[in-house]
């Protein structure tokens, strides 16, 4: 079946739930944008996703990327799709107008990206890495490097990659060994090998701009001795045109469980010419600008694949005749069976709340990067720091769960290739691993975002939610959430007071899931409150899904709380 962008749901969130125009009042960079523009962009995104990306998704998975003597060939149709992608302005959506970008909000971009992940996750990854790379350069590169590299990257003529991981180091970047030797002309010679580099080599863009973590001579040991370098695939001539190939070559590509049309490369640097970004030993600080954007993007991968899985499962359940059902004569479609309804409701409830959190987090990133009011910037940075690991981990954990649930709706047909469900499951699995495993996200949440600041970020979150729901009509769900917020505060305080580093590791993943379930409950209440001015059929659907979430999914928090408290005794 064809993908249908959930346009009404998306616009409901932008206009009624979060009211972006009101939320961005006073931000000059967004003053020319309105809901009509947002709606038109989402319509075009849906057309591009359905007409260009979806038709080459399954064939791209079957053909996969091919490697020969340092060169990577993407599957049939990908080069043409990439040209349509950059010509349509999708690569430049959130980039600075100073360098040719459109400067649109991240809160909108998460929805565009969702539609692209829904229809072709492998393809979407190339553009996502480039966007993260140019945002990093925009924040930390010299003006000279910005002027040379940003316009070409924003236009899509050149792409970007993020070169962190080394075979012996994994997630512990402090162990990396790639070296950077200073040269007389202020450039550096970069030597070393990186693995798992998404888009490190491909045949769609003219040049690839690698952002490489390396060590300078006599650098301090560990993470504090890491610097960041821009290393282009092709050197540039004095007039800015492409020159000879740099000392960077793809050694091989990985043969993977999923995302097979995304090139995952081993990149070898041999005296490659590079340029320092952000100062000596500032590599990790700079790289986190890109990593945090990529973590949200990879979270959206979970939402996108979950949405596609839901659409297909819902269509199949309405069409597939099997068994008998109450109030239905003859053989019934399986949508009439309670267990299938449970599965579809679970999928929708997680997808819709996740989408809401993606916009909420995106809007905080927008405020942090574009507001001129320092108090708002400080609050937005704190909320973004707290919500990012939750979004990355929970979106992708639930994305994988939703995809396997959708596969279950198909029964045996979900396990065979022709229906496409098994590809969603394979493509979704990696999102729990890359851009920092979900265990690492949980450790970041509990260690840096809770304990390190004595619960200040959690207090900010809870006060924000309490202030908001004070305006909502009284209901059993509001009462439930109010009690859950007090429980959340008490549990977080106990962790700060009673836990040590070892205990934090034991309870981190449970705490992240617990936190996310309560945030989702708040977002369901927020959506339900905003839906009261919509047509009755829309309100009724929201009411039923909100009730399902509170009755059937939020109770998962009870077991997580008990599990956490068992380690705090």
Task: Offer a few descriptive terms.
569 residues, 57% helix, two-stranded antiparallel ribbon, alpha+beta, seven-stranded mixed beta sheet
Question: Describe the biggest sheet?
Answer: 7 strands, mixed
Structural class: alpha+beta
What form results from the Cα inertia axes?
A: globular
Unreliable spans:
none
Proportion in helices: 55-70%
How many distinct helices? Answer: 18
Helices and strands, in N-to-C order?
A: HHHHEEHHHHEEEEEEEEEHHHHHHHHHH
Residue-averaged pLDDT: 96
Computed over alpha carbons, the radius of gyration is 24 Å
Set down the secondary structure blueprint.
Elements lengths: L6 H11 L2 H4 L11 H19 L3 H7 L2 E3 L2 E3 L4 H10 L18 H14 L1 H20 L2 H13 L2 E6 L15 E4 L5 E11 L8 E8 L12 E6 L1 E3 L5 E4 L2 E6 L10 E14 L5 H37 L18 H33 L3 H36 L11 H9 L8 H14 L4 H14 L6 H23 L2 H30 L5 H18 L2 H13 L1
Parallel strand pairs: 3-6
Antiparallel strand pairs: 1-2, 4-5, 5-11, 6-7, 7-11, 8-9, 10-11
């Amino acid at each position: 079946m064809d993908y249908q962008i959930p346009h009404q749901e998306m616009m409901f969130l932008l206009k009624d739930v979060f009211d972006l125009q009101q939320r961005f009042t006073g931000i000059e960079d967004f003053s020319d944008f309105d809901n009509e523009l947002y709606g038109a962009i989402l319509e075009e995104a849906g057309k591009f996703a359905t007409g260009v990306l979806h038709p080459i998704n399954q064939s791209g998975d079957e053909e996969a990327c091919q490697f020969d003597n340092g060169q990577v060939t993407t599957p049939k149709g990908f080069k043409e799709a990439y040209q349509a992608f950059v010509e349509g302005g999708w690569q430049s959506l959130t980039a600075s107008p100073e360098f040719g970008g459109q400067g649109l909000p991240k809160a909108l971009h998460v929805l565009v990206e969702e539609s692209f992940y829904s229809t072709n996750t492998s393809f979407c990854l190339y553009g996502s890495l480039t966007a993260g790379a140019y945002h990093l350069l925009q924040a930390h590169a010299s003006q000279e490097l910005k002027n040379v590299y940003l316009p070409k990257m924003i236009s899509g003529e050149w792409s970007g990659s993020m070169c962190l991981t080394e075979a012996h180091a994994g997630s512990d970047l402090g162990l990396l060994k790639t070296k950077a030797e200073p040269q007389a002309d202020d450039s550096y010679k970069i030597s070393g090998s990186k693995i798992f580099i998404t888009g490190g080599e491909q045949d769609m863009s003219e040049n690839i701009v690698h952002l490489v973590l390396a060590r300078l001579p006599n650098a301090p040991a560990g993470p504090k001795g890491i610097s960041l370098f821009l290393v282009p695939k092709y050197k540039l001539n004095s007039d800015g045109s492409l020159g000879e190939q740099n000392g960077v070559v793809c050694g091989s590509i990985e043969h993977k469980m999923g995302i097979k049309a995304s090139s995952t490369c081993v990149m070898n640097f041999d005296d490659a010419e590079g340029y320092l970004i952000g100062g000596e030993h500032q590599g990790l600080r700079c790289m986190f600008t890109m990593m945090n954007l990529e973590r949200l993007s990879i979270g959206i991968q979970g939402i996108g694949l979950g949405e596609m899985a839901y659409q297909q499962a819902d269509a199949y359940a309405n069409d597939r005749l099997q068994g008998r059902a109450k109030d239905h004569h003859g053989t019934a479609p399986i949508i009439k069976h309670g267990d299938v309804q449970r599965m579809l409701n679970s999928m929708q409830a997680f997808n819709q709340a996740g989408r809401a959190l993606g916009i909420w987090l995106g809007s905080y990133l927008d405020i942090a990067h574009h507001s001129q009011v320092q108090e708002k910037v400080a609050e937005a940075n704190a909320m973004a720091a707290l919500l990012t690991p939750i979004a990355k981990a929970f979106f992708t954990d639930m994305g994988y769960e939703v995809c396997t649930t959708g596969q279950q709706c198909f029964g045996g047909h979900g396990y065979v290739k022709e229906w496409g469900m098994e590809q969603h499951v394979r493509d979704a699995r990696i999102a729990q691993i890359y851009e920092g495993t979900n265990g690492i996200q949980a450790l970041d949440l509990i260690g840096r975002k809770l304990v390190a600041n004595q619960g200040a970020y959690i207090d900010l979150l809870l006060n924000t939610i309490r202030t908001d729901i004070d305006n909502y009509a009284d209901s059993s769900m509001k009462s439930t959430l109010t009690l859950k917020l007090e429980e959340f505060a008490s549990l977080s305080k106990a962790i700060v007071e009673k836990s040590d580093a070892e205990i934090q590791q034991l309870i981190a993943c449970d705490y992240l899931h617990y936190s996310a379930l309560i945030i989702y409950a708040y977002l369901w209440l927020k959506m339900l409150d905003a839906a009261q001015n919509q047509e009755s059929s829309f309100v009724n659907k929201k009411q039923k899904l909100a009730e399902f979430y509170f009755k059937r999914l939020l109770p998962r928090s009870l077991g997580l709380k008990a599990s956490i408290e068992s380690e705090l005794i």
